[in-house]
Amino acid sequence: MPIKRNRFITLDGGNRSVNRDPEAKARMLAGWKGYSTNLEPGTANAEFVTGAYHRLYEIERSFRMSKHDLQARPIFHHKRESIEAHMSIVFAALALTRHIETATGMSIKRFVTTTRRYREVIIEAGEQLITAADPLPEDLHAAIHSISQPRRAH
Fold first, then answer.
1. CB under 8 Å to 44, separation ≥6 — which residues?
2. Is the Cα dihedral 122, 125, 129, 135 positive or negative?
3. Contact (CB, 8 A) for 8 and 23
4. pLDDT digits (tens, 9 = 90+) for 9-45
5. CB contact at 8 A, 93 and 100
6. Is 12 in contact with 4 (CB distance < 8 Å)?
7. Which site in 2, 41, 50, 73 is 20 to 30 Å from 116, CA atoms measured?
8. Are 39 and 32 in contact (CB under 8 A)?
């Protein structure tokens, strides 16, 4: 079977060798990303454009999270109120999720799986209420405490 065209391999008769020029270019450009914008030249600097793309990435990440972690799937409501209520709940959950991630420094998936096993159970034995719970580890206690602190304005 013949070898497909590969810019990193040079075929000279039956001899194969690595073409180092495109390989060096590819290594040099690895990790670089080009940004395009419709802004007029001189109206925005490079930091503004890259910052806008990074914010766009965060917005896209939020929508990916809303579909996966929040399980916000399309629901076929027939009334406007139902649609608005569904979207309000999803965006409230998204805002809460982003607050938890920012306050704790953990991803929401890690936070949920870490906290899921800690529950409190209240047992009623006659007239007495007994509370049973596993004690929280110190790092989880600190994370939960950081969530309840008011955010400071930037």
1. 37
2. negative
3. yes
4. 777 777 878 777 776 776 766 666 677 778 887 788 8
5. no
6. no
7. 73
8. no
| 145 SS3 class | helix
Residue 31 CB partners (closer than 8 Å, separation 6+): none
Confirm if 15 and 29 have CB atoms less than 8 A apart: no
The two tokens of residue 144 are 């939960």
Give pLDDT, residue 114.
Answer: 87
Whether residue 108 contacts residue 100, with contact meaning beta carbons closer than 8 Å, is answered with yes
**What DSSP state is assigned to residue 72?**
-
Contacts of 132 (CB under 8 A, 6+ apart): 120, 121, 122, 123
Q: Which residues of the chain have pLDDT under 70?
A: 1-8, 23, 26, 28-33, 63-77, 151-154
Cα–Cα distance measured from residue 135 to residue 141, given in angstroms and rounded to the nearest whole number: 9
Q: List the structure tokens of 106.
A: 């953990």
Cα–Cα distance between 34 and 9 in angstroms, integer? 26
Q: The tokens of 27 are what?
A: 């290594």
Side chain identity, residue 7: R
At residue 32, what is the residue type? W
